Amino acid sequence: MSIEKVALLAGVSKATVSRVLNDHPGVRPDTRDKVLAAIDSYGYQPNLLARQLRTAQSHMLLVLISDITNPFCANVVQGIEAEAEAQGYHILLCHTASQRQREAAFLGLLAGKVVDGVITMDAASCLPDLAEYIGDSPWVQCAENDPAINASSVTIDNRAAAHETVCYLAGKGRRRIALINSDMRYLYSHQREAGYRAALEEKELNWASVEYVADLTCEAGSAALRRLLQRQERPDAVFAVSDMLAVGVIHAALQAGLRVPEDLAVVGFDGLALTGSLNPPLTTIEQPMHQLGARSVQLLLKKIRQPHAAAVHEVLPWKRVERASC
After folding, report:
1. Contact residues for 221 (Cβ-Cβ < 8 A; gap 6+)
2. Model pTM score
3. What is the tens place of the pLDDT at every residue in 250-306?
4. Same domain flag for 137 and 179
5. End-to-end CA distance of the chain
6. Neighbours of 99 (CB within 10 A)
7. Could you tell me the residue range of the domain that residue 21 belongs to?
8. What pLDDT digit, counting tens, does each position of 165-206 carry?
9. Could you say which of 157, 158, 206, 262 is the most buried, measured as most Cβ atoms within 10 Å of its Cβ?
10. How far apart are CA 207 and CA 227, in angstroms?
11. pLDDT range class, residue 104, cuts 50, 70, 90
12. CA nearest 271: which of 260, 284, 281, 262?
């Protein structure tokens, strides 16, 4: 739709249409109504432009995601989209790759009123920079959060989940439990490693080994296990901070002639659907991925509708799904 077409249909000048679009106070009510009627007559369902003019809202939500290839993120986004649509909103999904220039460009949409608020899934290390761009605009931190930032958040207790997982493995007689961890720019990586180390100390397990990976992929998980197997004392259990890493661990273990779980127990994290179809099926920590996304939308809409509402920090429950890998 162009300004020219709206002006022609409404019988007004382009300048008048522009003044209506910018909510200029010098436009007569009947003229404004004619312009809005012209916009409506194009039959958009829903007509976002007309609705934005009437409500000063676009009914669009910006979602910043650092890794669009991560299945965990994809599942959370599904929850975001479903809840947004149920509330009469649409989402604009932007892959930032945690690059500051890309983040700044996308967040310019907030200043331009193209979107009403933002949900971020970027690494915690990026969030202070994002706070500079977002300012007082409605914002919810999903999965990753910076407690020092005055914005609502939805997470799980990563430390407790990791601590309980290592205690579970120790309870099954495992004494050399390795951790395959992720990029330390992410808060969850710090929290899960903290839980891992606390559980080792509690169970008086002196053997510890952490392998770090740059990507949450099967290939990265396989490579990490191969490095662990080069140690003089091999692990008898692996806790991976991602199901995709755990899938790679099982693959590499079987290639090395190890039996899972007899020689090597494996536990993943996320609760992806594919984990139940592995051979052997993967024991995993299941995150409420859809609920993380849906609750993020609910908190964001609350902030949009009540700009002065206090920030809310929610911690959702997780659960262990026990299968044959340990």
Report:
1. 180, 213, 240, 242, 244, 245, 246, 247, 248, 249, 251, 252
2. 0.82
3. 999 999 999 999 999 999 999 999 999 999 999 999 999 999 999 999 999 999 999
4. no
5. 59
6. 13
7. 3-55
8. 999 999 999 999 999 999 999 999 999 999 999 999 999 999
9. 158
10. 16
11. confident
12. 284
Give the integer Cα–Cα distance in Å for 238 and 152.
Answer: 34
Residue indicated by tokens 């100390």: 201
Q: Is residue 325 part of a domain?
A: no
The string of pLDDT tens digits covering residues 208-232 is 999 999 999 999 999 999 999 999 9
Spacing of C-alpha 182 from chain mean position: 15
Locate the DSSP E strands across 68-208. 90-95, 117-121, 139-142, 152-156, 177-181
Peptide bond into 147 cis (omega under 30): no
- What SS3 class is residue 238? strand
Domain tally for the chain? 3
User: What CA–CA distance (Å, rounded) separates 182 from 280?
Assistant: 24
Q: What is the CATH number of the domain that holds 171?
A: 3.40.50.2300
Residues 180 and 234 in one domain: yes
Backbone angles phi, psi at 64, to 5 degrees: -100, 125
pLDDT tens figures, 65-79: 988 889 999 999 999
Which own/partner contact pairs does 52-60 have at CB distance under 8 Å and 24+ positions apart? 52/113, 53/20, 53/21, 53/23, 56/23, 56/113, 57/116, 57/304, 58/113, 58/114, 58/115, 58/116, 59/88, 59/89, 59/90, 59/116, 60/89, 60/90, 60/91, 60/92, 60/114, 60/115, 60/116
Q: For tokens 């509402």, what's the residue?
A: 309
**Residue 34 is part of a domain; what is its CATH number?**
1.10.260.40
State how far the Cα of 52 lies from the Cα of 295, in Å rounded to an integer: 24
Q: Which amino acid is at 223?
A: A
Q: Is the dihedral of CA 220, 145, 195, 259 positive or negative?
A: negative
> For residue 237, what are its two tokens?
């259990």
* Two structure tokens written together for 168: 């579970």
Q: Report whether pLDDT(46) > 50.
A: no
C-alpha atoms less than 13 angstroms from C-alpha of 254 in its C-beta half-sphere? 11
Please list, residue by residue across 224-258, b when 16 or more beta carbons sit within 10 angstroms of its beta carbon and e when fewer do: bbbebeeeeebbbbbbbbbbbbbbbbbbbbeeeeb
